[in-house]
Amino acid sequence: MMGVEPIQQALESGAQIVVAGRSSDTSIFAALPLLEGYAPAVVWHMAKILECGAAAVAVRTAPDCMMAVLHEDSFEVFPLRDDYHCTPQSVASHTLYENADPFELKEPSGTLRTNNARYEAISERAVRVSGSDFVHDPEYTIKLEGVRQVGYSTILMGGVRNPYILAQMDSWLAQLDDNIRTRIRNTVGDRPYEIVTRVYGRDGVMGALEPLRGNVGGHEAFILWDVISESQELSRSIATSVSHLAVHNPIPKWHGLISGVAFPYSPPEIDRGPVYEFHLNHVLVPDSPTSLFRTEYEEL
Amino acid sequence: MATLGDLAKLVRSKNAGPFWLTIDIMFDDAEAYRRARDAEIVNRAAIARLYNRNPADIIVVNHDTALAIKVSFPRPQSSGSKHDSDVYGGQQYAPLLGLEVPG
């Protein structure tokens, strides 16, 4: 994730438009004013407030732009849409956004500390911000983010309305898992695969964080099966078995071939292609702030 | 007794990077904010209980200018991984809405 320096280098070389790869959100706004010599504390705080445009207004009905005016030791910020306005609270609140700690905002060259920031209304719509500190780090660091492919996914979506199944969802799914394992062992052998089952109406949204995870709350539930394996063909083949076994997965109360799942689509299997997960979350000390990033110039 | 959901102007959750979740509990008047803050119902032990997390991993911050209480903790799995159900972390605040605020 690049800082301001590669963008500044491009600007200093005469670029009029910079198409950048992954940078910190704030670097895009901070590059030019830092180049012009404005104080880092003022610039980085301004950049943090501007990063999501009109997200820092009091009532945002639709996305829009924001304007900031920089001074030596403060900046003013206001929305461009006439019916929007900023308040000290709405501007201060934006430091909360997508950060674990609103008072410490880490950038490649240092940390913005907003503990002593002052937010004053200077009109009905504009707020002046001052008093933050920027602490330069002794070492310049680049955040590395990366993913790895974990396989190919095929999903199934199904609904359950049968109150007997809903009342014993956990054991019904455990039995289905057993049946699936046996079937897959007999058909595809020992090739590795995983089936992630989400039950909406129980803990589909929050998973391990759900305090009410023990029961299905309503009169119906939605089940999302996600089959992941080393190839799309294998995932699809397993999902085809899962859909068939799920529909007819029995409950102790009933005898005969039951129908227990409503599939909204036919065929119920939907290929999702390759799937990934984050596995790289590192901090790197580069040779220089620009050494990891290539810049190409084009004349249009 | 009023709940946090009754008193707050906005409660939202979001990723703070792919490995952390963060929840903002925001108010529109200072009195409601101070009432919730001073009741100390949003604390590490309470969050740990509600979300089945380790208290040592939880950050709770009061932001007096923003009239907001902020809670952050590591995700049980990284954003978008096999077992994640909320890639952007947008729906992880609901259990807080029912917390009762004395006073």
Q: N-to-C terminal Cα separation of chain A, in Å? A: 27 Å
List low-confidence stretches of chain B.
none
Order of helices and strands of chain B: HEEHHEE
The total of helices of chain A stands at 7
Report the mean per-residue pLDDT of chain B as an integer: 95
Overall geometric form of chain A: elongated
Count of individual helical segments of chain B: 3
Total strands of chain B: the figure is: 4
Structural class of chain A: alpha+beta
Indicate the low-confidence ranges of chain A by residue numbers.
Answer: none
H/E series of chain A: HHHEEHEEEEEEHHEEHE
Shape of chain B: globular
Largest interface comes to: A-B, 36 and 39 residues
Radius of gyration of chain B: 13 Å
- Count of DSSP strands of chain A: 11
Which structural category do the helix and sheet elements of chain B fall into?
alpha+beta
Q: Mean pLDDT score of chain A, rounded?
A: 95
Largest sheet of chain B, in brief, is: 4 strands, antiparallel
Question: Helical proportion of chain A?
Answer: 25-40%
The percent range for strand residues of chain B is 15-25%
